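Summary for the steering committee. One of the milestones for this cycle was to obtain a three-dimensional model of the protein with zinc ion bound, which we needed before selecting residues for the alanine scan. The sequence and ligand used are listed below.
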Amino acid sequence: MRAGFPDFRLGAVLATSFTGTLSERHGDAVERIPTPHRLVDWLAVYGLAVDSCTTAQLELARELRESIHAAATAAALQDTLPASAVHVINDRSAQGRATAILTPEGKRRWQLGPASRVEDALSVIAADAISIIAGERDGKLALCASPTCQAAFFDTSRSRTRKWCDMNTCGNRQKKARFHANRRKNPGSAD
Ligand SMILES: [Zn+2]
């Protein structure tokens, strides 16, 4: 972590963790990749280490992020996918060179193109988003129940009843709010 920058919220699903680099979209939005360097840091956490990142490449990344957010939100609501978002996702998917590598330990690793460009990493994220939005993976797109968040997340719980994008932040805040509301209703009670 670099001092002075907001922490990353790390989820298990690449594409929706990427959209989570802008959080609280309906409240006081927090930009978690405010500089090209922070995008480099974020990509490294997800096994997509790149050599460098320019401001223009950060813009490509943010455009992809907002397009995934828009398309995933529409998919969660079973609306028509916005054409402009689909275009950007497909463009980023096509612009990168990345290869899936099977390690001797039986894990998948991404090998970016020879220059390890940001575009290569973005193509992996775009492909991940496509697999989720296309319904190819076991899970369901849903929107976070926090009114200031409403982030699209991928619910892989068995019952498909997850309510929050992240238990530690949105889920916890909601629980605390409920706790305080109960305390106001029943002063003196512990819960
Ligand atoms: Zn949330």
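Key point for the committee: The two ends are 36 Å apart (CA to CA).
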